[in-house]
Amino acid sequence: MTLYRQLVVIIISLFTACFLISVTISTGNLRSFLEEQLASHAQDTATSLGLSLSPYMQRNDTAVMNSMVDAIFDRGYYRSISVIAVNGEPLIERSNPATSKDVPSWFIDYIDLRLPAAKAMVMSGWKQAATVVVASHPGYVYQELWKNCLDSLMLFSLTAVASILLGILAVHLLLKPLKRVEEQAEAICHQNFMIQENLPRTRELRRVVEAMNRLASKVNEIFTEQLSTTERLREQAYKDPVTGLGNRRYFDRQLQASLESQEESSGGAFLLLALSRLEQVNTASGYQAGDILLHRTAELIQKRLSGFKKHFASRLSGAGFGIVVEAINSREADALANALVKDLLQLHTENLVEDSNIAHIGSAMWESGDSMSCVLMEADNALRAAQAMGNNGWQRYEPTGEAPRSIPGAAQWHSRLKQAISSASATLCAQPVLEFTGSGDKVLHKEIFLRLPDGNDGFMTAGVFMPMAERTGLAAGLDRLAIGKLLDYLSANPADAFRYAVNLTATSLHDPELVEWLCSQLQANPEHGQRIAFEFPESGVLGNIPNTRTVVDRLSALGCNCGIDHFGRSFNSFGYLRSLKVRYLKIDGGYTRDINRETDNQFFVRALADTAHSLNIRVFTEAVESVEELDAIRLLNVDGVQGYLVGKPEFL
Amino acid sequence: MVIIGLLFSTLCMAGEFTLTEQAIARISQEHGEYARQRVVYWQELIRSSPGLSDMQKLRRVNDFFNAIEFVNDIDHWGKKDYWATPLETLISNGGDCEDFSIAKYFTLLEMGIPAEKMRLTYVKALRLNQAHMVLTYIPSAGDDPLVLDNLDKKISPAAMRDDLQPVYSFNGDGLWLAKKRLADSKQVGRADRLAPWREVIARISDELAQ
């Protein structure tokens, strides 16, 4: 029962009780008073009539006596007046039996006035000749009593109604802060730590609101601390404090992951950059100067790399930097190396290095499946050659004895992909993602990858053509193709109960036309919406967080889950997670590598999982390939895994 | 003298018109020996009445009270129209025509004379040209009443009292019953609104209630 109803019931009961008590008391009092009035009125009339009649009784003047009785009877309000002789003979009688019309008979019966007749003597000289009996009419009394009851009822009813209305209004106003407290609690559950600014005046309510505000602030503090702890852990493990780039450990993980992933990348260039004069700067000007040099170098490198889509740079050791750029060919790699050494000349003009011999670069091309030590060694060889060449030299490792691979150029790729899109000649593959549940491991969903025919009765993995698609502006088209194929598959296989996750590239995510198309497709097939999840790469999300938020909200409204892929690859703060309504994260495969041996990784993944859980976001790890890794991951509060160990992509 | 009326309310009485030893002792203390004596005689008068005939009772009561001096209310009580209780009249040793009539009425009532046989009659005293009150006694219904007066100290039939013109009579019994009801319903506090008759009844009932 709501407070309002309780209030109404209480008020009505109270007023009814008060009314009944009040009416009973007042009716009782009024009745006694009026009864007495009636009696006294009758007695006074009897006495004066007796007195007035006595002289005429003595003279036996009945005419006058009748007249007198009439005069009194007609002028007053009597039920009856009679003059009865001492022998019992009635001499004069008048009566008016009329009853009051407006008063209900049940009321008259209930009140039941005592109406004794008043008597007085009529003397004749010294003797009593007759008795005059006067009975007052009770009609007036009943009317007054009834009117009293009705007036009371009216008054009480009006007051009760007014009280109820006022009470409801008062309760409503008083409870508004409570409603806001309720909203506050809801908001906190959704990581929105709002504070109530307007404190209510009622002391008890004010205390509740103040407590709620303190709670919200406290939880906010805890969250923020948790996030920063997680970030710190990662930094300690993977960030080089001087340059802000990844450290050696980070580099190893990332390169290994790139080399092994077939869906994400197919190849690229690795550049090993070594500063020539770091030692000298340290000795001559101190380590602080050396740090400044390193920091500036990193800045310049990152600036040059910002033009590329998929890349990362790390500080490897002392004076060495490792740069990996995916989806570029050897020509582009050479152009990059050339540009870099030119950029680094600035260090000399900025007087950070005295010598004009700044750095050397050794580069090697790699493809998916190559061994990391091979790639590193090739680049190292190239670096030695570059250093032997002279100032600011660069070299690329050329494998001897192999025919140069024919690398299709951008234009060729463009037409090939366009053709694939228009002919819709693509197939889908699905890789299961397992979730840890209380009753064993279950398939959460299957991640979809596109496969295009390679012209030789084989298939190209997404890692091969997707980077080129992004570079040639056809990523949206391919994503559209993949989604269309999936929707067709779902329509054709209503018995398939699995859910499917689709990747959207960064460009697609921020392409309004594609998003519009996607939403309209989902609206047209609402039953499929529940079964599809969308994943965005972390780099895409970070590129435009507000737009990502909008897209996520739209897709969530249509029933789709959204997730972030390759989470943790960059060193950004995680704060944006609090306002982004994604349902899950897939931690970058780099962290999974040998996690059973890497305690720092374990700390980080565990902390990330805890933080994400308090934001109601689930956490999965990618690229799980050994049982040891899987066992270690089970202990880290992670929600599930993906990887060749648990399932390989298979044709749909 | 008015104070006496108030003091009476503190007297303890056992039974109607029967005073306790303590009450009599107090009267002696506060009003003197003569007062005490008069009260004692009055008690004796009442006590010795069983067995007497009506006429004997009438004569004794009439003679007893007629011995008291006639004083006007305004001189005696300081009030214009004060109806004293029998006790007040005795102790103060003075009263007017109403006081005499009341005293005789209640005493005779106490002695067993039925209320229907007695009337308090308003008369005009022709020789004095004054309003006056007497007590009348009717031996049986329809008979000529006997007059108990303080002007003429002898009891005589009404027909013989041609110096009195009857105006109106009170039958006290309805009012005596009313007194009982008043005592029961505790309405004695409202003396200021009642007629003098009701007031004296109220005060008598006060005396009895204590």
Instruction: Give the overall average pLDDT of chain A.
Output: 87
Poorly predicted spans of chain B: 1-16, 183-194
Secondary-structure element order of chain B, N to C: HHHHEHHEHEEEEEHH
Please count the beta strands of chain B (DSSP E, at least 2 residues each): 7
Rg of chain B, nearest Å: 16 Å
CATH class of chain B: Alpha Beta
In words, what does this structure look like?
The complex is a heterodimer of chains A (652) and B (210). With 652 residues, chain A is of the alpha/beta class. Chain A folds into 3 domains: 3-161, Beta-Lactamase (2-Layer Sandwich); 242-396, Reverse transcriptase/Diguanylate cyclase domain (Alpha-Beta Plaits, 2-Layer Sandwich); 410-651, EAL domain (TIM Barrel, Alpha-Beta Barrel). Chain A has 22 helices and 19 strands. In chain A, the strands form 3 sheets. An 8-stranded mixed beta barrel of chain A has the order 10-11-13-14-15-16-17-18, surrounded by 4 helices. Chain A has a 5-stranded mixed beta sheet with strand order 6-7-5-8-9, with helices on both faces. In chain A, strand 3 (118-124) and strand 4 form a beta hairpin. Chain A starts with a helix and ends with a strand. Chain B has helices at 2-8, 21-31, 33-47, 54-66, 73-76, 86-92, 97-110, 172-185, 196-209; strands at residues 69-70, 94-95, 118-125, 130-137, 146-148, 156-157, 164-170. In chain B, strand 5 and strand 6 form a beta hairpin. The two termini of chain B are 20 Å apart. The interface between A and B is medium-sized, with 11 and 17 residues.
